[in-house]
Amino acid sequence: MLQKGMFTVSKSGKKEIFLSLMTYGTLGLEMGLSLVIGLGMGYCLDRYVFHTTSVFTIIFTIFGIVAGMKRLYTLWKRAEQDDERNNSTGH
User: What's the CA gap between 3 and 12, in Å, rounded?
Assistant: First the structure.
């Protein structure tokens, strides 16, 4: 076990903390990329395929926002399940 301050962290606990940081640390990147990809796809459809104003840009930007929010919701539910599992085992 590793002793840091007044907390003791086992190697498996350290691995769990690292994996959690990796998962939640990339959340902003995932949300930003989903928005940019949706925006880019909509812009290309408007500009090069259908020659419309900004109809597809708006629609695909909304799709990108929804995709980012879906990812946030999925992580939130997973965190709740992990918390319930940890509380039920007595940790």
Answer: 14
Q: Six-digit token pair at 75?
A: 């992580």
Indicate whether 5 belongs to any domain.
no
C-alpha 20/C-alpha 71 separation (Å) is: 15
**Distance, CA of 5 to CA of 28 (rounded, Å):** 30
Per-residue pLDDT of the chain (91 residues; tens, 9 = 90+): 445 555 666 777 788 888 888 888 899 999 999 999 999 999 999 999 999 999 999 999 999 999 999 999 999 999 899 888 888 876 5
Task: Report CA torsion sign: 53, 55, 58, 61.
Answer: negative
- Domain residue limits at 41: 27-84
State how many domains the chain has. 1
